[in-house]
Amino acid sequence: TDLWTDLAMMDYPYATSFLAPLPANPVTEACKSLSSPYDNEQELLQHIFSAASVYFNFTGTAQCLNISQEDDIGADMWSYQACTEMVMPFCYDGANDMFEKADWDLAAFTTQCQAQWGSSAVPQPDLANSLYGGRNLDSATNIVFSNGLLDPWSSGGVLKSSEAKGGVVAIIIPEGAHHLDLRGSDPADPVSVKTARKQERSYIRQWIQASKPSNRRMIK
Question: Are 34 and 55 in contact (CB under 8 A)?
Fold first, then answer.
């Protein structure tokens, strides 16, 4: 599951090495073999192997696919954070997705976390919502929530602007992978991400301008 979701996260329009060395549009590359016809299960497994190799061996230098090493950006530290203060429930129903059925089990997740990090790693599933307010944005101001719809994480993002104070803006990037708008510009960037960056700069400029003392109203 991590292989395919990470591949979708990294579906950038140009070659990258963020989580692993990947070609441009890696999902398209992986799907070339996955969409090929096959006559038996051995051929199907070969297609899956070729697709997995896009993520684990795009450079062609690996002697075997080490699927236990998902990336090289310090993901262990993220794993500890996810095991303690940023608990994010994941589940699969096996019918509306491409994965085997797996229910969210906090007890099993806690056992897994403590096996990896020790007994002090106690998941706090409500902590992030308590600290940051969850989806209650009534008191939030001056925030741009940008979401690339190619990124699986976007399903949990803030996808609508808040009209309450006008200071919470949701920007949708249909062709955007994981935080594509926060990466450096590239000639292969889609129009939607270029537009998003312009919008982000415009809002931030407005908020900075509005925060200057000369633009504040005197309160008596």
Answer: no
* The dihedral formed by the CA atoms of 198, 199, 201 and 202, expressed in degrees to the nearest 10: 110
Closest CA to 26 of 67, 60, 56: 56
Stated as kind and residue range, the H or E segment containing 43 is helix 41-56
**Cβ–Cβ under 8 Å, residues 150 and 177:** yes
Report d(CA 135, CA 79) in Å as an integer. Answer: 23
DSSP state of 162: B
Alpha-carbon dihedral 185, 186, 189, 192, rounded to 10 degrees: 20
Q: Supply the DSSP symbol for 102.
A: B
Name, in order, each residue with C-beta under 8 angstroms of 208's C-beta and a sequence gap of 6 or more.
none
Q: Which long-range contacts (CB under 8 A, 24 or more apart) does 157-162 make?
A: 162/137, 162/138
User: What pTM value is reported for the model?
Assistant: 0.84
Q: What does the DSSP 8-state code read for residue 173?
A: E
What value does the mean pLDDT take over residues 63-88? 76
- Please name the helix (run of DSSP H) or strand (run of DSSP E) that holds residue 4, with its range, or none: helix 2-9
Say how many CA atoms lie within 13 Å of 121 toward its Cβ: 20
Predicted confidence band at 219 (pLDDT cuts at 50, 70, 90)?
Answer: very low
